[in-house]
Design brief:
With about 260 residues, chain A is of the alpha/beta class. In chain A, about 35% of the residues lie in helices and about 25% in strands. Classes of the chains: A alpha/beta (about 260), B mainly alpha (about 300).
Chain lengths: ~260, ~300
């Protein structure tokens, strides 16, 4: 199921602002790649270019190549809607659909893409909620509104919703930053479990989290305000945290930054 | 900590700002503004309560079954009895047709403006046009339909012609209300939907619209209430009649506002009583529609915050 992503020479812009500059890297399948770096360095922007969510913002555009196995996501013949079915995303703040029940939230991706068969939906909903470690907590109240769950449960609901459409890649934009440590642990366990099936990319501000969950870590930085963000280095997580090549990476990780 | 207090308070106090004492000046200001707010609230309430009270007291006299069962056909102004059946039917049909035409156009316009137009030229042009339409006096809308539909195209007076005039008045209010509601839908939800690989139009239909539904329904109801009370454009386009005309597509039709206008112009007390009851029934219908719409909207509203 999982696919490899190869990015080469990627630039992203918001109108006239050059947000990220010349990024090339490979994201390995069935593993977790973490993006770390200071605020405003373009981690989230870069993440959003990987499923063409970047261009949802008016005036935003991208240059460069993002190869998903052997398909270029930015080829003119590619439909961004189709890309997002293959590359799913979980956001910083849990955002279940407020008008829908727990069941409908998980089924939303399928239903909104025209799947109507009840048995298929039931099956996918249970499978996805089990996949997101949420089934036992909500199985007796699937008809209740999704917004009534706790923050951590809502985030797992959002993950269930994202995996229900069976993507190849799962992008997570600081999925734990609005959660308490217990819920964070639940999500991290989940990531550990999901990486056997999916290619996972996670943006995080929490370096311990990056060290705990990821196999490879990429460090991003900016030269100064108004300058575009750059990839400083990417390597095995153990190497980045123990013995990084670049001085800036070491300074950031040890807290001696700036 | 002493530096904190240098900005305010007497210079002699060096112990820092006290947490318990509020300065006298602030207390007075607080009281005065509070008083003003309550006063403004009461002032705004006076005409509203007064109007409602007068209509209820005067309208209650003729609020009998006859009023709802009979028209004014062959009833002269000074006669007792008679009713507004023809006018109630007319108003309901006209407003229904108006809503059927105006609401889809207006909601689709608002969706275009919020979800698709961005900062484009066309969006700005439409937005400007809607603003201008909001300011059209109702009589002008009536004259427009009179000139176009009745005089140029040669159609006869009909409920439909009146509905067309009301449509012109209803569209801008519904567009504005819907636009505001759609703007309130958090962008997170749109992005969540896009990230599932849901196309934009399905996102609008199944995520954005349901989330904004309560507000849109409220906006539509306010617009319905507004056009239900319009009189001038109806006189120009539907005219009025004392008899029952169930067909909104041919011939003059009665409506509650024109019924009230006609009855109130008659010097006989019996007619004036009928006019008051007509006004009461009109207010009643609007309130009833509001309650029903709210009930329907609540069942679809976002739940469990």
């Amino acid at each position: 199921m999982a696919k490899r992503i190869e990015i080469s020479g990627l630039h992203a812009y918001y109108g006239g602002v050059h947000a990220i500059e010349d990024i090339s890297m490979t994201v390995e399948p069935r593993s977790v790649t973490a993006f770390i770096g200071p605020s405003g360095c373009g981690k989230s922007t870069f993440l959003r270019t990987l499923n063409r969510m970047h261009e949802v913002i008016p005036g935003a555009r991208v240059e460069g190549k993002v190869m998903l196995d052997d398909e270029d996501l930015y080829d003119s013949s590619v439909d961004p809607v189709a890309v997002r079915r293959v590359v799913g995303m979980v956001f910083q703040r849990p955002n279940p659909f407020p008008t829908m029940s727990i069941y409908d939230n998980v089924a939303a991706g399928l239903k909104l893409n025209g799947v109507r068969r009840k048995s298929r939906l039931d099956e996918t909903v249970e499978e996805s909620l089990r996949g997101a470690n949420l089934w036992n907590e909500v199985k007796d109240r699937l008809g209740k509104p999704g917004a009534g769950l706790s923050g951590g449960q809502q985030q797992r609901l959002c993950i269930a919703r994202a995996i229900a459409v069976q993507p190849q890649v799962l992008l997570m934009d600081e999925p734990c930053s609005a959660l308490d440590p217990i819920s964070t642990l639940a999500i991290e366990d989940l990531i550990e479990k999901l990486k056997t099936q999916y290619t996972i990319v996670i943006v995080t501000h929490n370096m311990q989290q990056a060290a705990r969950v990821s196999d490879r870590t990429a460090f991003f930085n900016i030269a100064g305000t108004g300058k575009p963000g750059k990839l400083i280095e990417i390597d095995e997580t153990s190497k980045i945290f123990a013995n990084p090549e670049q001085k800036a990476t070491e300074d950031y990780i040890t807290g001696r930054f700036g | 900590m002493t530096t904190l207090s240098t900005g305010r308070g007497p210079a002699g106090k060096a112990a820092g700002p006290s947490l318990t004492s509020v300065s006298a000046g602030r207390k007075v200001k607080d009281r005065v503004v509070q008083g003003l707010v309550y006063l403004a609230f009461l002032l705004a309430l006076v005409p509203l309560v007064s109007v409602l009270w007068t209509v209820v007291v005067n309208g209650a006299k003729r609020l009998d079954p006859t009023f709802f069962q009979f028209s004014m056909n062959a009833v002269s102004g000074s006669d007792k009895g008679g009713g507004a059946y023809h006018a109630i039917i007319g108003t309901l049909e006209q407003v229904l047709i108006t809503s059927l035409i105006a609401v889809p156009i207006a909601v689709l316009t608002a969706i275009y403006l919020v979800e698709y137009a961005g900062n484009g030229r066309l969006g700005k042009l439409i937005s400007f046009t809607v603003d201008v339409m909001t300011g059209i006096p109702s009589i002008v809308a009536g004259l427009f339909v009179l000139a176009l539909w009745l005089l140029t195209f040669g159609f006869d007076y009909s409920g439909l012609a009146g509905s067309l005039a009301l449509t012109i008045l209803m569209i801008p209010t519904v567009v504005r209300a819907t636009e505001e509601m759609l703007k309130l839908v958090p962008n997170d939800l749109r992005e969540a939907s896009y990230a599932l690989g849901v196309p934009r139009w399905r996102t609008v239909c199944f995520v954005v619209l349901p989330t904004a539904m309560t507000g849109i329904v409220t906006g539509v109801m306010l617009a319905v209430a507004r056009v239900m009370g319009e009189t001038a454009p109806l006189l120009l386009t539907i005219f009025f009649t004392k008899a029952i005309n169930n067909d909104p597509f041919t011939g003059p039709q009665a409506s509650l506002p024109t019924f009230i206008w006609e009855q109130a112009a008659d010097p006989s007390q019996n007619s004036i009583d009928r006019a008051w009851t007509g006004a009461l029934v009109l207010i009643g219908i609007i309130m009833l529609l509001n309650l029903v719409a709210r009930f329907v909207a609540r069942r679809k509203a976002p739940t469990g915050r």
